[in-house]
Structures are given as structure tokens and as C-alpha cells.
Model the fold of this input.
Amino acid sequence: MESKRKKTVISFLGYVLAIIWLFPFYLMISNSLKTKKEIFNNTLGLPKDLTFDNYPQAFADLDFTKTLLNSLIITVISVILIVALSSLAAYALQRVKSKFSNVVFMMFVAAMLIPFQAVMIPLVTIFGKIDQLNMAGLIFMYVGFGSSMSIFLYHGAMKAIPRALDEAAIIDGASRFEIFRYVIFPMLKPTTVTVALLNTMWIWNDYLLPSLVINKEGTQTIPLKMFFFFGEYTKQWHLALAGLVIAIIPVIIFYFIMQKQIIAGVADGAVK
Amino acid sequence: MTNKKSWLYVFSAPVLIALFCVVILPLLFGVYYSFTDWDGVTVNGFVGFQNYLNVFKDPGFRQALWFTTKFSVVSIILINVIGLGLALLVTQKFKGTSLLRTIFFMPNLIGGLILGFIWQFVFIKAFASFGNLVGIESLQTWLSTTQTGFWALVIVMCWQMSGYIMVIYISYLQSVDVSLLEAASLDGANDWQQFWKIKFPMIMPGFTVSLFMTLSNCFKLYDQNLSLTGGGPYNSTQMVAMNIFNTAFSQNKMGYAQAKAVIFFIIVAVISLTQVYMTKKKEVEV
Done:
């Protein structure tokens, strides 16, 4: 009896907290469906006369098809490169024991301590000088910044894969790359999921680096476009909120498809 | 022998080149620039430690550093307490725990910039109408005073990161041996005792990870700062990352900004290393 009452209290507390957590989303969505005037008079309640007029205009002003495409291109290419190149490097660094591999691995680990601001100004200057402040330059930078943590995770996972596998394949006449491609990489799949998801979450939402590298009409990603859009519409909440909802929809869809992997990946990435 | 190892160099070259161009080279250049009067285009001369001395006398930087420190301390404590609380909550047995996990974690998927904008609406419009409703005047101007702006940042950060920290604590709580808890329960240990005597020592390693993550996220915060308060009113809620950015790109004092960036790097590195070292030591004692 006692434990049943306790259960009710705990579950009630959980639901109340969940409602509090969702409240900002509720405010954003419900107000995006109101007229400008109704947001002013009735901020907290549900919309009285539902309007969808804010959405087409926000969608057009965000140039959303193009903006979404830019975000997708940059994120997908960067993540593929990070996964491929980091796993390849981690394989070599973990399998060969030498001074070189130790020093290089320590360098990648140490680089995780460096805050972006410490390298931000010279980075932009150097890439500006060689005329690489563009999408390709940005993707290259993401490989540089993303590889540290990815190599660290792959390096840890690699330890669990027995060397006997490599040796057997060598006897069969496989090259090092073939061993990596057909034996090792498939076995690293759980780590690959973690690495891909952590990097996707970071790159998709990143604002500061792209704002310094590709902040031009036509190449803007969702956070960049959102910043300009919001600046223009500070006094026009009905459009600003519709824009925010549009900007969030791709992430929410992704989350509901991948939520199990995302939560497991975050735990894995943090704990190791 | 060299031939045998050559694949090591080939396989690690691509990421090594990227790391070198993006992190190592800019860091070295940065340290060099911080000793000059660099304006982004040319270096006119060495100024020795003058930039560094000026940073310590800069009232704007000192205020930003103090604000960042206060913000980080308050946020780290709250995020870890709330995150652990949520983790204990959703590892109980009742209907809907996996939905609750999904909801609590959701804010992490959305970038700091967009989160800041959503909360700008909450603080400006929703808080104001609620203040009207219940007659609390101070809710009207939540983002326009330093004090409430501080708490606005703390609230947003807690709302976002608690779910992340929850996930980390859950993975440690799940490693707690259930039979141990059952045995304790039979021996008459109540929930409180079970938590402190059994679960707490087991999740101790989780603190290292969680503190490290919250600390580095809070101390380096930029996006939420930019989109929520923009540093205002009068730069009083400006944090270190934003101070460095503005010195470099609004005032064009590149060499000076770089000296700030180097100091920032040293602070972040020292705190992180000390913290990892101290928590590791404590784990052994437990």
C-alpha cells in the first residue's frame, strides 16, 4: 500500500516536470499559430482563431529549402569525412606502438582541451589569406576540430578488437587498408554510430564557426539564417516564432527516428 | 622496418594535416600575435607583455570573467543536482519513463542559438503576461536587468543541459547491482540510505564526467549568451567568449583579443586538468 502511494507521487512529479520542460515549446508553437494582435492580448492561452498565415512568409523569408540544403550538405559531408578519416587514423595509431603514434595520439587528446576561442582569430585570418573562407574550407575545419574526440572514441573501441584478426588477414595476403575496410571498420559499427551522431548534433547546430567562414547570402546554414531572420523580426513575434518552428522541425523528426541511438550514443561518448 | 610502418603515416596523415592547419598552427600564430600590436592585417611591432598587462586592467574583461565564473558555479551545481534528480526519477518503475527521458533530453538536440531565441519569447512575452496576471512587476523586464538576465541564462542552461547530464547519470545508475539494493532493503535500509550508501558511491565516476562537461560548456558559452541577452544591458551579462569575440571583430584589436584568448585557454585547461585529477583521486578513496 505504502509503495503504491509512493509510486503515484513519483510518477505525478515526473509528469509535472515533463509539462514544465515542454512549456517553452508549447508557447512557441501555440503563438506561431496566432495573429500578431492575438499574441499581444493572449500570450499564454491556446489560439482563439487559428491562423497558418505566418508559416508561408517565414518559410519564404528563411529561404528554407536552400538553407536546409546548405545545412545538410555541410553536415553530411563533414560527418562522413570525420568518420572515415578518424577511424582510419585510430586504427593505425592503436595498432602500431611507436613514439610517433604515442605523440600523435596524445596531441589529439590534448587538442580537446583547447577552447575554440583560443584559435578562432588566427584560424579565420589564415584561411582568409589563402582564400578558403567557403564551404570547402568550413568542412575541412570541421574535420580538424571533430577528429580529436572521434579518434579518442575509436582508439578506445579498437582495443577490444583482437590483433589476431589482423594477423590472420595478413597471412591471407590482405593489405592494411583491406583489413581496415573489410575486417576492422565493420566491427566498429557501434562506435561509428556514436561518433556520427555526436558530430552531427554539434555541426548541425554550430553557429560561431560558420558565422566567421561562410556568412554570405546563398551559403548560410539554418543557425546563420535564423540569426538574421530573428534580428529583422524582433518586434514581429508571429513571424519570428513560425520561423523558429520551421527551423526546429528537421531536428525533431531526426530525434524521433533516432532517439534510442542518440541517447545511447551520448551516454557512450561521455562515459568513455 | 620503415616500410613496415609506412602505413601508419599514410593512415594518420589526413586528420593530422587537418588538426595541424586548424588547431596547432592557429594556436602557435595566436601565441605569437598576442605579443604584438596585430590589427588583423599587419604586425607593426612587438609589445612584449603589454597586451597581457592590459587585459588584467581591462574592466570589461574582468567583469566578463567574474560574470562567467558566477554563472558557471551556479549552473554546474544546479545542472548536476537537477540532472541527477531526473536520472533517479526516470529509473524508478512507473509508466512513461522512456517518454520522460525523451522529453527531458529533447532541448539538447536544438542549437544554443535557437534555444536562446525561444526563451527570449518566453522571458519577454510570456513572463510579462504572467506578471500582469499575478501583479509582479519585475517579471515585465526579465531580460533588461543584470540580475534577472543572469538567472535567465542559468534557467536556459539548466533546461538544456540537465537532460544531457541525466543520460550520463542513468548509465551509471544502471550499473548499480540490483541484488545489492534488494539485500539492503531486506535489512531495513530506507530509500535515503540506499541512495547515499549504495547508489551514490557507485555513480561517483559519473561526477567526473558530468562536472567536466558542464564546466566546459558553461565556461565557453557563447550562442545562448548572444541570442538571449546579447550581453546587455550595457555588456553587464557579457561572458568571456563574447568579450573576446567583440574585442576582435567589433573593435578590431586582434593582438589584444588574442592575448585574452590565450588567457582564456590557460584558465580552461588548468580548471579541466585540476578537476579531472581531483575527482580521479577521490574515486580511489571511495
In short: The CA atoms of residues 127 and 133 of chain A lie 6 Å apart. Chain A touches chain B through 85 residues (CB under 8 Å). Chain A is about 80% helix and 0% strand. The radius of gyration of chain A is 24 Å.
